[in-house]
Amino acid sequence: MSFFAICAESQPSSSDANGVNDNTIDLRTETFPYYSEHFHDLRQYITDVRKQLYLNPKPHREYLPNLGSQEFSDAARSLCFGPENPILQDEHRLLGIQTIGGYGAIVVATHFIKNNLKLSRVYVPLPTWEEHIGILERNGLEVCAMTWRTRDEAERGECRLIKEAKLMPKHSAVLLQASCHNPTGQNLTKAEWQQLLDIFEENEVLPLFDLAYQGLGRSLSDDAWPIREFAKRGKEFLVAQSFSANFYLFDESLGHVIAGMAPNHPDSQKTFQNLHSAFSRIVQVKWANPAFFGCRLVTEVLTNPSLLESWKNALKSVRMKLQKERNKMITGLEADEIASKSEGIYVVLNLNESQILKLQTDFNILMDPNGSINMTCLNNKNRTRFYNAVNAVTVTDTKDKGKQHEDDVPLILSYI
Question: What is an example of a Pfam family matching this protein (predicted)?
Fold first, then answer.
C-alpha cells in the first residue's frame, strides 16, 4: 500500500511558471522580478543596510517570543498609525504580533476570527489577491463575495461596494485592502472610504485591513489613511501588515498583525491579556517563533532618523518610477485617463478571455486570467513588444466585429 499514491494534483495558482521560457514576458501579479528597474533605489538602499547589519551582528541567539520582537512591533504600529498618533500612548489599545510575512498575518488574523471570535463567514470585495480566498477557506470560513469596483461605476462616480455593505448583517467581519489594490491598482476615494467606515461603525462590523504596500501608492500616511480614520472612531479592528515590497525583504518574509481594541473599555486590561494569550496560542501551533534578521533590519530603519529618511526617499523614487510606467502604458496602449488614477504596482487591462489567450499563444505574454498585470515586470527590453502585442489583439478583434465605430472600441485599461 502507498500512502502517497492517493495524493491528487493540486490546482495550480497564477504564480506557477508552466510554459515560461527565456522569451516569455511574464506579467502575472504573483511574479515579482528581483531586479526590477522600478525598485532599483530601494533595492540598493536595503542592500546597503543589510551589509551594515552583517558587519555589526547583535549577539542574539535565542528564540524570539511567540509574538515576536516588541521593539519591532512598536515600530510597525508607529508606521501604520503615524508616530504622533495618540492611539500609540494607550498601552491596552493595540496588540502587535510579528508574523511570517503578510501571508502569515492574514493566516493568523483569520484563524483568530474563526476560532476565537466564533465567526463563520468573512465578506470580501472581489477581485482580490487570490490567496485571500484560499486562506479563508482553509481556515474554515465561508467567503461572501462583494464588489470592489467596476468600470461603469468609475465613469458614473458610483460605488457598488457601499450599497452592498449596507446589506451586511450586524457583527460581520470583512477583509479588504487599505491601498494599492491587488490586482486592480484602483482605490476608493476618501469620501467613499468615509461612507464605508460609517457603515462599519453603525453595524459594528469588524474590518480586517490588508496593508501590503504601504508607501508604494501615494505616501506612507495616505496609504494607511482608512485604518487611521477607522481607529479614530474607537471601534475594534484588525490589520495585516507586510514588509516584503516596501522594504524589498521578500526573502525574509516579515509581517505583522495589529489587533485594535476600543478605548476606555472597563475590562481593557483583561481583554488585552486574553488577546495576548489567544494570539500566542495561534502562533505556537503555526510556527512557534518568528525569525530575527528581517525584524532587526526594519526596526533599525524605522527607529533611526537618518536611516528612516533615506528609506522614505527610496520609496518616493519607486512611486515616481511607477507613475512614469503608468504614463508610458497609457500612451503606448492609447488608453484612457482612468488608468492614471491607479496606484501601486498593479493595473488591470480591459481584455477579454480570447484576447488574453491570444497574447499567451501568439505572443508568449502571460498575465492573470482577468487581465491583471504587475507593472514592475515591464522594462526597456520588453515594453515595446508588450504594447505592440496588446494593440495587435485589440485591433484584430475590432476589425473582426465589422468596422466598429471608433467611439465604441473597448478602452484598454479599466477597473474590473
Answer: Aminotran_1_2
